[in-house]
Amino acid sequence: MSFTTLPYLLILPLAPLVLWWWLRRRKPALRYSDLSLLAKLPRGRAKAARWLAAGLRGGIVLCVILALAGPRFPDQTTRLPTEGIAMVFACDVSGSMAEQDFMWSPAEPPVARIAAAKRAFELFVTGGTTPDGTHFEGRPGDQIGLVVFAAWPHTECPLTLNHTVLLGILDAEKPRDSGLDAGTNIGDAIAEGLIRLKAASDRKRVLILLSDGEHNTTASGPDSPFTPQQAAQLAANLHVPIYTIECGGDPKPDASAEQRQQREDGRAVLKSVADLTGGKSFIANSGGDLRDIYQQIDRLERQPIVSFTYRRYHDLFPALTAAAVGGLALLILLEAIVWRRVP
Questions:
Q1: What is the CA radius of gyration of the chain?
Q2: Tens digit of pLDDT for each residue in 30-48?
Q3: What is the reported pLDDT for 214?
Q4: What region holds the VWFA domain (predicted)?
Q5: HSE, side-chain direction, 13 A CA sphere, residue 81
Q6: Is 90 helix (H, G, I), strand (E, B) or coil?
Q7: In the prediction, which pLDDT does 118 show?
Q8: 117, 146 contact by CB (below 8 A)
Q9: How far apart are the first and last CA of the chain?
Q10: Fewer CB atoms inside 10 Å of the end CB: C or N, the chain?
Q11: pTM for this predicted structure
Q12: What's 200's DSSP letter?
């Protein structure tokens, strides 16, 4: 049940106050020297009438307040069809994502790579129109989760329809500068995202992975991280397409041959991950590129579902109003006939 005008519930304490006032009010009386004439009258009726009248008055006030609050409950048979999938956004938060070399728009200076990633994903999720005219419908029906990763992945938000909370968590993320979490572990990030997507077996599942570098976390032994190819094979077996976005930009003109090769190798790994899972690989060098990429993903990944939004509600306002009017009429009738008092 929900209420269309919830603030009216703040005056609910008025109902018991009316009952208390009616019981405590001063009642009219007649002065008479001898009460023996009334001794044989049945006892207790006046007291019962007094309490019933007070309760009826409190009930009338309660019905009026509840009617003003507009209570209603949904018709469970009229849920609206909409579009929605289950999606995990795996976002790189390694130290290099703090580099302020990403052009979001020509009208402003370069921003950090992670800041551009946050802006683009927020547009994709919530919808809206950018100053350059790019329009996003938004994804209100999607269950979306957030995994961040540097040397190790962390689930910051499981699948949820509360996108306000999700985006608030994403906005608070900062690049990992150094220490034990320095590095880029794409393989385990994919595996972590797949684990979170298991909670949505009834929907189509998609993983979006954004990174500015190549997978560079290696170890030996039973706890060694997945390679990107191993994790991609898991995703392919689960029929989860992965959309990869490389946002590291082109190598600088003075970059060494080794640095150029590393960038090419990183892009090749992301492309192989997307190809193996039936997804698509993208390269983003600017805010315009990111917006175009998310528009493409938006068009590709929509699936009809039945939402939890209802087409029709049953309003209780008429019933409560009728109860209040009926209670008032009954009170007037009873006090005029059955509960009549003298004086």
A1: 33
A2: 666 666 666 666 666 667 7
A3: 83
A4: 86-297
A5: 3
A6: strand
A7: 96
A8: no
A9: 46
A10: C
A11: 0.65
A12: G
Q: Please give the Cα distance from 218 to 207 (Å, whole number).
A: 23
Q: Residue ranges of the chain with pLDDT lower than 50?
A: 305
Q: Which of 241, 236, 232, 243 is nearest to 296 (CA)?
A: 243
CA dist., res. 56 & res. 148, Å (int): 60
Instruction: Note the pLDDT of residue 57.
Output: 84
Domain 81-308 top-level CATH class: alpha beta
Residue 46, C-beta contacts closer than 8 angstroms, at least 6 positions apart: 341
Helix (H, G, I), strand (E, B) or coil at 183: coil
Specify the pLDDT at position 33.
Answer: 63
**Angle in degrees, CA 85, 166, 226, rounded to 5:** 70
Please tell me the predicted confidence (pLDDT) of residue 170: 96
| Residue 326 zone, left/alpha/beta (φ > 0; ψ -120 to 50; rest) | alpha
Per domain, the residue ranges of the chain are 2-27+43-76+311-336, 81-308
How wide is the angle at C-alpha 296 spanned by C-alphas 295 and 301, nearest 5°? Answer: 100
User: For residue 181, what pLDDT is reported?
Assistant: 67
